Amino acid sequence: MKFSEELQERGFVNQISGESLSEIVDGQKRVIYHGIDPTADSAHAGNFVVWMLLRHLADKGHKIIFLVGGGTGMIGDPKPDVERSLSAPNEVRARVEKLSVQAEKLLGGNEIMFVNNYDWLSKIDLITFLRDIGKHFTINELIKKEAIANRLGSESGISYTEFAYPLLQAFDYLTLCREHGCDVQVGGSDQWGNIIAGVDLVRRVEHKSVFALTVPLIIDKVTGKKFGKSEGNAVWLDAEKTSPYQFYQFWFNASDESVIDYLKLFTFLSLETILEIQKEFTANPGSRSAQKTLAYEVTTFVHGKEEAETATHVSESLFGETPFTSLSPKEIGVLKQNAPGVSIKGSTDVLELLVRTELASSKREARTFIEGGAIHINGQKIEDFAMVLSKETFGEVALIKRGKKMISLVSFE
User: Fold this and answer.
1) In a 3-state reduction of DSSP, which class is residue 309?
2) Half-sphere exposure of residue 329, counting CA atoms within 13 Å on the CB side?
3) I want to staple 324 with a disulfide (CB 3.0 to 4.6 A). Which of 127, 225, 295, 399 is the partner?
4) Pairing of strands 380-381, 375-377
5) How far apart are CA 82 and CA 291, in angstroms?
6) H or E element: which one contains 291?
7) Under CATH, what is the fold of the domain 340-412?
């Protein structure tokens, strides 16, 4: 299978310029760049799909330039609905540094160059920019771009600052083409207009053919929501923003309809291996084998094997067959940080505890759950309504479950 065919099969390709994807990635080794503006100090799952594509490209020998927009980040790519708030220069610089470190960790080990477009955008004077760059763009072209068109039709309108953003991104492409021989830009499908602006500018100024490649926006097939911070469901790659356990759980909770797509996009497992996983999963979807593999592989890549194994063990204790008593002190610490829980001074009876943990709305309902065999503490089925729980009987920490998914961690003082 050609590399271009593998990228297609994995789902990385949305739009391309040129005659074919094979022309871009199967022949000569390219210099490929991707840019990200520092609107936050960490990438999230929405950015991650492009980073995975970059890693595949780098592994095949293409040279990667990773651009963090210290310059364009002070302007802001036009949003389709409202004007962006301008960030303070020192805040932008701090975000640039954090994003660069994060990208280097995940993309390192290959021939990757990190650049900041502030280095050249801050040096070009306005008259030169308007004469040498602005003259290659028409208002007619710019107002056809989706985000700009949407804003022009809204009450808020669009400032000249954001209106000029495509020129700045196009100038980035021209600069990287001139200085480093860059001939491919990759990005999300929402960046197609900006990327094509760069392709056109290079053609007009340098009389060279360069290429554009975009990946599709990743949409959950069940909820219809995209992966991205604008949707209010951001899953960050920074462990301080989204803990490795929460990160693992996000992937583990992937829908049955989407999980195979995610395995192709977000792991380095071969397509043959993924096909075998799909066959097993189709035969027994209740096993969630595909989700377990996805969560482990992605967490390993982003946070390391140790964190992935910790998250797996804790998850299996909460929702699988792993005994709670087998957890290490570190794993119990992860539980305390992420699982709902209560603190109990002295002792309490089990009916009161079920109400305190909100696993039952009343003692009467708690009795019903116990009678139905739905309550387990540290894996032990509870049948005695009068059972008393304390540090002496269950240790410093106990895990109480109602059914398979309702849980609470109890700490005894």
Assistant:
1) helix
2) 0
3) 399
4) antiparallel
5) 37
6) helix 289-303
7) 3.10.290
CB 219 within 8 A of CB 189: no
SS3 378: coil
Label the pairing between strands 375-377 and 397-402. antiparallel
Fold that domain 244-337 belongs to in CATH: Tyrosyl-Transfer RNA Synthetase (1.10.240)
| 15 to 187, 188, 244: CA distances (angstroms) | 10, 9, 33
Tell me which CATH code domain 3-218 carries: 3.40.50.620
**What stretch of H or E contains 401?**
strand 397-402
Domain residue extents for the chain: 3-218, 244-337, 340-412
The residues pairing with 214 across neighbouring beta strands, listed in sequence order, are 15, 187
Q: What is the pLDDT of residues 78-110, one digit of tens each?
A: 666 666 666 777 888 888 888 888 888 888 766
Residue 70 φ/ψ, nearest 5 degrees: -65, -25
3-state secondary structure of 342: strand
Q: From 193, 206, 203, select the one nearest 167 (Cα to Cα).
A: 193
pTM of the model: 0.86
Q: What is the per-residue pLDDT across 333-365, written as a single tens digit (0 to 9) for each?
A: 887 887 788 888 888 888 888 888 888 888 889
